[in-house]
């Protein structure tokens, strides 16, 4: 079997766009998380909602920051 | 004097080895040697025509090198040219390995060339031997001033040193400049331009030796890297990062006296012409993010050209490096992953060149470190020449266990070692997700910390008045929020009722309208039930005293609105049942309608007001 070149799972050229998009979505979720934390009273807060918002926000922020690192030349 | 001494030593050596026994029935019928001294690296190309005069099959040809040369021998290869003449056809190389045959003089080192087909009786074979020597060109004088020219001494034997008898032989020494200080003259010596020719000499017995010394001018810079550390880091996110740390020294004649920058700038071809001015690194094509820096920071004197075949980086050290001076710097560049990393039979391999990308550089210690991604297993190296191999671990961005590093070490490396080598390893693609998962969990811990902070009660005194008041206020807030919620839900039901009326006017389906009314009645009743305990709680709470009137007003207004809406609804449905005209209906509900709009506005205002508290 002839050696087959390995490529990255996501084309390099997409990294800047991906990082901007994912970071902005992530920051929107972060904002909604903190707005919810600040406005809802202690009794009426729902833990499930907090956790899901936090999880979604961290997934977007995590991938966004990874792509930001890759786009800026820090190949992890 | 030292030179004379070494010459005398060589002479003794010649005498001592003249009586050594003859090894086999091989005879070298012709040897053409060309010694290229145009750079700091001495390249000896010998074309040997070997003939078997015995009756047995011979599969080995011995090459002899005096120990003086063996020390400096960086590269030795033998290959036969398929194509005849000067056209270099496809050459197949032979295995060359050091051997220790018995009964041979101790001051010689032997290498054996294995002939794959062997040489039968009476057969002959022509092949090339390339020997590359470093540090054999001795500067003489050893110390020169800036204005002097660099003179070098090279010692060799005019007769080919071989354990076999040699029938015909010639030697050509190619020098960089036509100016030759002196050279040993024996019979049949000619000097043509920058070349010195010895021979042809005929019918010499085994181990013939005739030392010759050439003393010549060479202003080639002696770029010697005392140490070069190349770090090749693979990232499966699409990059192979190469970082090269150089420690250069000018290995030519030492400089003596002072160095004048002014003289050097004004007349560079007379004053300090043997300085290392610039170095050109030939990088692979599509190299990106190239940098050149040293301990101080970026060095701006560099140029970069690139085309589809190569990338050329020309760097100029911070100062011209003359004899004995040193300079250290780092260059780095990124390469696309798909040019160098491949997958084959379930294994991954990186296929990249070993040596330094610069021309005519001698490297005393070359260390190549291949940093594989975290989680690589079953690592093996395949290289075209022997290397010292070791393993270490490197910690880089977002690592937990560290990345496995293969460290390959080679001493005395020359451009001939610039061959490709391979590192094989196994790697699971899912391991790439480790890095994003780490980032994600990092962010998630931040959110969890926020949640915990908001949920945990961190006051120290649980019985103080202010704390209790705060607790109560929290409860009041929760109650008010719930009431708001209920009112909102009620308003949604109101909207549904209005919608059912609009449906009625469109379709005239009285039954559907009545059903909607029934459902609304039920849910509104439930809501009013839900609101009662909350209101009772607010009335009993001191903290709510301020806001209570507003909340009560809101509830009352809502109820009023609700009642009027019901009245309107019943009237309209009634009218439809009695089949009144549109005008009649409008007249009947007109008064209610005005009040409903006004009440709705008031309720909205109140909701907003409570929201702001």
UniProtKB/TrEMBL annotation, chain A:
Q: Where do the TM regions start and end? A: 13-36, 56-75
Which Pfam family, an example, fits this chain? Ost5
Work out whether the entry's keyword set contains Transferase: no
Q: Which UniProt keywords apply?
A: Membrane, Transmembrane, Transmembrane helix
Quote the subcellular location field of this record. Membrane
Quick one: a GO biological-process term for this protein? protein N-linked glycosylation
Principal subcellular localization = membrane
Which PANTHER family does the annotation name? Answer: TRANSMEMBRANE PROTEIN 258
On assembly, the entry states: Component of the oligosaccharyltransferase (OST) complex.
Task: State the name under which the record lists this protein.
Answer: Dolichyl-diphosphooligosaccharide-protein glycosyltransferase subunit OST5
Question: Organism source for this protein?
Answer: Rubus argutus (Southern blackberry)
UniProtKB/TrEMBL annotation, chain B:
The molecule here is called Dolichyl-diphosphooligosaccharide--protein glycosyltransferase subunit 1
Signal sequence segment: 1-24
Q: Which family does it belong to?
A: Belongs to the OST1 family.
Metabolic or biological pathway: Protein modification; protein glycosylation
UniProt source species: Rubus argutus
Membrane topology per record: Single-pass type I membrane protein
Q: Where in the cell is it found?
A: Endoplasmic reticulum membrane
Q: Which GO terms describe its biological process?
A: protein N-linked glycosylation via asparagine
Which residue ranges does UniProt annotate as crossing the membrane?
437-456
**Purpose of the protein:** Subunit of the oligosaccharyl transferase (OST) complex that catalyzes the initial transfer of a defined glycan (Glc(3)Man(9)GlcNAc(2) in eukaryotes) from the lipid carrier dolichol-pyrophosphate to an asparagine residue within an Asn-X-Ser/Thr consensus motif in nascent polypeptide chains, the first step in protein N-glycosylation. N-glycosylation occurs cotranslationally and the complex associates with the Sec61 complex at the channel-forming translocon complex that mediates protein translocation across the endoplasmic reticulum (ER). All subunits are required for a maximal enzyme activity.
Give the quaternary structure.
Component of the oligosaccharyltransferase (OST) complex.
What are the UniProt keywords, alphabetically? Endoplasmic reticulum, Membrane, Signal, Transmembrane, Transmembrane helix
Q: Which Pfam families match?
A: Ribophorin_I
Any one Gene Ontology cellular component term annotated for this protein: oligosaccharyltransferase complex
